[in-house]
Amino acid sequence: MIAKPYLIALGVLALLLFGGWMKGIYDEAGQADILRQQIAATAERIDRQNALAKKAEAEMQADRLALATLNKKWTAIRAQKDRAVCQLDADAVRVLKDASAAHPAAR
Predict the structure, then answer these.
(1) Residue numbers of the domain that contains 56
(2) Which residues contact 88 (CB under 8 A, 6 or more apart)?
(3) Where does the pLDDT of residue 94 fall: very low under 50, low under 70, confident under 90, or very high at 90 and above?
């Protein structure tokens, strides 16, 4: 039994269509793999950048704490330098004068 030419042509056409369809499937799978790899690389890069940002944030918080401590110390030093060394009220001055006048060495 010899195959009829239109059946052979139909078989070849079906084979070509099937091959084209399979090529499309493999092309889409290849593109999906490439996209998956790009997504993984991007996620990895984002994780690294987040780690660096967290480290920088921790350093910045430490610097802020150190600055606040230095400002408190500076404020305390300035307050000590600006205050009077000895400021007595009138009652204290009177008591000291009376005590020094009553002392035998003051006579």
Answers:
(1) 5-106
(2) 96
(3) confident
Question: Quick one: pLDDT at residue 41?
Answer: 97
Q: Residues 71, 64: contact at Cβ < 8 Å?
A: no
Region 69-79: mean pLDDT is 88
Tokens of 56: 């920088």
In contact, 93 and 99? CB cutoff 8 Å: no
Domains of the chain: total: 1
106 contacts: CB under 8 Å, gap ≥ 6: 100
Enter the pTM of the model. Answer: 0.47
* pLDDT tens digits for range 21-54: 999 999 999 999 999 999 999 999 999 999 999 9
| Whole-number Å distance between alpha carbons of 19 and 93 | 113
Q: What angle do CA 9, 15, 17 make, to 5 degrees?
A: 105
Residue type, 48: R
